[in-house]
Amino acid sequence: MVAEMELSSEQSKPAQLVTSKKGGLRTMPCIISNEALEKVASFGLHANMIMYLTSEYHMEAATGASILFLWSAMSSFTPIIGAFLSDSHLGRFRVIALGTVVSLLGEIVLWLTAVFPQARPVHCDDPSKEKCVSANTAQVMLLFASFGLMSIGSGGIRPCSLAFGADQLDKPDSPKNEKVLQSFFNWYYASVGVSVMFAVTVIVYVQVQLGWVVGFGVPVGLMLLSGLLFLLGSSLYVKVPPNKNLSAGLVQAIAAAWKNRHLALPPKNFDAWHSPKGSKFAIPTDNLRYLNKACMIRSPEDIGPDRLAKDPWSLCTVRQVEELKALIRILPIWSSGIMIGVTIAQHAFPVLLANTMDRHFLGKIKIPAASFSLFGILTLTIWVVIYDRILVPLVSKYTKRPRGFSFKQRIGAGLVISCLATAAAAEVERQRRKTAIQEGFLSNPEGVVSMSANWLILQHCLTGLAEALNAIGQLEFYYSQFPKSMSSIAVALLSLGFGVGSLVGSLVVSIVDDVTKKDGVSWLSSNVNMGHYDYYYWLLTAMSVVNFFYFLVCSWLYGHCEDKKNWDEGEGRKEMEDLSKSGEYAVMFSA
Hints:
GO terms for molecular function: transmembrane transporter activity. By secondary structure, this protein is mainly alpha-helical. The chain has helices spanning 2-11, 15-21, 28-46, 49-56, 61-90, 92-115, 137-169, 177-210, 212-232, 246-259, 318-329, 331-335, 338-344, 348-354, 374-399, 407-438, 457-481, 487-516, 533-558, 569-581; strands at 360-361, 365-366.
């Protein structure tokens, strides 16, 4: 209730006045700590979850991996819903607060599965010598409920935190605004990287050394702290009012274009476009011209005495059409990010393989199998710092771009390096399997080979570098192409792409497991020494190479994209307010 009152008072003030008194760097600790602690909690649970599923729920490796892929996919899909809710109905502050509460509930449920033995199957000491009891329906549903709640919660936090932080610093009139926002994006991603490093080391170590009860209890405490810190800064935040007709505007533009599809496109000198007085969007662009039919005024009867469309489902404004075009145009490049999502989501199998190798590092230090992903996150974090502080100033002198390399160059470079990452994983696994067979472990999946697990570091580092280049490039690309009112949607598109990648990953695992087991032993067998995980990684490499060439085509078709379009946010809000007053705006999307 307090949050609602604060948001209402924010909406009644001019945006410039609110911005001048609130926001700024002083809000960053509350916002970034919320996202960082959420990442510690969620990644601390996800990193080692394959071991929990195989050891406590007695699942096959392929089954457990598929479940984790689906969990990751759901956690990536829900942000697109959270983005629409925040941008068009509730506002980012309330969506983040609600997401934090729901995530906390999910983690408590997962913790309870470890606390109460009745919540999971009877413990099995040696799966190779006795048949382990599978989880019953109630136990599985309780486990899935915890995953579901955490996914719903992440849908509120992940798409909004970055955009909410940008709201606090975004000053379009400042000549340093672009540089400030770029640095914010990079350092925000770096802070997330540090939190994930903490998760895959400290949290995983606690789980391995102190057991699942303590290992799952620590994330619960961190998530509670995350919510409290975020709410403490409530009175300091800039809270951009939600555009309650944003989703309606996109749908109406689609509906109007469909209804007018039979109309012929007008000549170049046509000027009867529906655009409010004073709008900078007086004439639609030539991109996706068929959508321009949605804002063509066919006769004076289409416009009412208030100069608004009598039927907004048959005639919309030029701005609405341009917003829809912006969303449609980026979809091909967005789709090229799905395959790298498959690569980044490969959490389960590297853990299982590392568990069969010598995990000593620098002598006596023995790294938990799930902690090798630390090297990927460390690479990502180091690259962000080097790129932001060293490469950008040097490269920008030659490219004449304030960002150094272009969006497309960074996205493409990330795709190339992801191909190298899966190829490296394939070769390392070929050597590991060969060593296991030579040392007599073919029928003993629990045996630890003499080969060092440090060979896995290369693939993790390449994956981290690929994510740093591709993900940050995508974030800046989407943010630059959309108006501020759609910024949460822009951020959520990255998460959505990785979500589809997780679904594709789950599908690939299921198909590979079903097809290859017909010949005797699955490539993805729970006995990693009898399986052929190297073949699986080579398959991912081939798919990634094809995807890179697809990206090149999409990039060429999109054209130049380095300049941020001036959407004139004040005008956009005024236009939507005027349309709302007509009383004919989408009832189905009303608050």
